[in-house]
Amino acid sequence: MGTINSKRLLERFEAHLTGTALAPATVVNYVADLRAFLRWSEETNQADGSPFGLDTRGVQEYCSFLQETRSHAPATINRRIQALRKFYSFALSEGWALTNPAEGVSLLSESASQRSRHLSPADISRLLEAVQRGRPRWVARNLAIIHVFLGAGLKLGELTELRLSDVHLDEQQLFLDVHSDPDGPTRLVPLEGEARQALDEYLLVREAAPGVEHVFVNRDGNPLSTRSVQRLLRHYAREAKLDGLTTQALRYVYARKLYESSGDLDRVTQLLGHRHTATTVRYLRPSPTQRQKNQTDNSAEL
């Protein structure tokens, strides 16, 4: 279709949806969903910024971005998948695309998403063992990545944006200066035990390109991307038979462990970077599957 004009594309898609039986509010939402997708495609230079060069894997990476970087709920992600299915179906009818890559992307299950949060110590051990069996050159870096997720509860984007200047000692205590928003306030998150050791060991062997201050770098010494972190986690999760594992699940392990050890909800809220305690309460609330398991375990103890 030549050069992509996002504004024109959105107008054509909106006109198409308006001519169907969809409710006006749904049309508005689907157009907004497509706008967000096009922006992501352009910003990440996916398929040279064209939505018509993406395959199913590309759309899946977008869903992972929404889930792990933006922390969108499964229902929101599923709506965006439906919007993309309709968009690509329309593109097929117009001759702009040869396939509908969104058709191959499965909708998220609310229960499955919640279950993925509840990693057992055995699950975590298997994940770390899988990393240790990886390519020797990357073992230190990848162990540090997993441990920082588990030991500091960072979001995916916060981890990849971490700079050397954000890692500092204060009376023998190691802290990470975490930036939730490039222009917003930071939060100090302590890093202890295995997480601190893993980061220390990685920094001893870190090889960065000149001028690169990001903590985690790729084979060229440049900043590691969120997509690369997602890919390496998916790889090791499969090795550990933990398919579907996300960085958000590792963040949840940190949050749950911190709350169980301290009982201080305000502190958990602060260290997670949540603005409101109510958000943390919802975040820590167990899934129906986990509640049922807890009830069964409690009954067995009576």
Plain-language structure description:
With 302 residues, this protein is mainly alpha-helical. The chain folds into two domains: 6-108, Tyrosine recombinase, N-terminal domain (DNA polymerase, domain 1); 117-297, hpI Integrase, Chain A, CATH 1.10.443.10. It is 60% helix and 6% strand. The protein has 14 helices and three strands. It has helices spanning 6-18, 24-43, 56-69, 74-94, 110-115, 121-132, 136-152, 156-160, 193-205, 226-239, 247-262, 265-272, 277-284, 288-301; strands at 167-170, 173-179, 186-191. A three-stranded antiparallel sheet has the order 1-2-3. The chain is globular and about 65 Å long.
Q: Tell me, rounded to a whole number, the average pLDDT.
A: 86
- Spans of at least 5 consecutive residues with low confidence: 287-302
* Helical run tally: 14
Overall tally of domains: 2
Order of helices and strands: HHHHHHHHEEEHHHHHH
Total E-strand runs: 3
β-sheet strand percentage: 5-15%
CATH architecture name of the largest domain: Orthogonal Bundle
CATH class of the largest domain: Mainly Alpha
Secondary-structure-based class equals: mainly alpha
**CATH superfamily name of the largest domain?**
Intergrase catalytic core
